[in-house]
Structures
1.
Amino acid sequence: MKLKNIPNLLSLVRLLLVPVFVFLFLDGKTTAAAIVFILSGFTDVLDGYIARKYDCISNLGKVLDPLADKLTQMSAFICLYITELVPLWMPVVYFVKEFATAIGALFVFRKGKVVVKSHLFGKLATLFVFAFVSTVIFFGEKISHTAIVVCCVLMCVYFLFSCLMYVNTEIRNGVGAAKKEQ
């Protein structure tokens, strides 16, 4: 196997871990689900590191990596909602954020054929989601519902900030690049 294929293989593994996580979590095996979720986060970091360090970035990886991230995180929020650990609006806000980001990326791509890459604020949002979900899975029954809701509100505020930064940088840069080509 060539080194350039490893990041894509790791993203595929993350995609395959999504149904495993959901099954384990909804079956009440929360510790095993948390381990799968953390393993997924680790493979996310690893595939990004390998792709950048060894210049193994591919168009397939530019699609698989964020797809695996979004499906992992969305399924985690839905599982947390189903088990009444987070309010319904949390997965809804996360979905709206990701949908808006995807529409923005599509807009930039259509204007300038530029594939929008992740930025620091998006990476931090992913880190916050993984830390939050892991904490709630492990300690959700011991944390007050109010504390969880406050954390959800803070994450939503950060999601909004992250989206605004995304719009400010990537969309402007993508549209600007398209105008230069014309």
2.
Amino acid sequence: MRFLLIDRIEEIVPGTSARGWKNAAMSEDYFEWHFPERPIVPGMLVLESFAQLAGWTEAASSDFQRWFLLDHVKAARYYAFAGPGDRIDLSLEVLPCADADRRAFRGECSVRGERSAVVEFEGRVVALGDLENTERARKTYEALRGEGR
């Protein structure tokens, strides 16, 4: 994963839900071009934050044997912007899915206590070891949970 877009995982209830957040720091390079006069977090990066939280949810639910890969966005509605200094609070719910090799999610995020986006997406489940070293993924997860400090 080139860009880690989750700064903290507050809670994961395996197979059910997850909560986490992402801080938007002015030093992030996308603010330079999106937009120079009024920097905002691109909506696509908000969606990617949800997809990464879904990946961590799948990993934690499978003892780091599986990962989630987004392949279909069913809906994405944006209501407000996040900018430098904002914290994007993410809440994710696992939805029923008929295919055992797929997962579906509904996510909602807020900035400064106001709803900023609601998304629904799905994708396939793959072996985590095919993408990354599972022990390194486990240690990254522990850091994102604030464990071992």
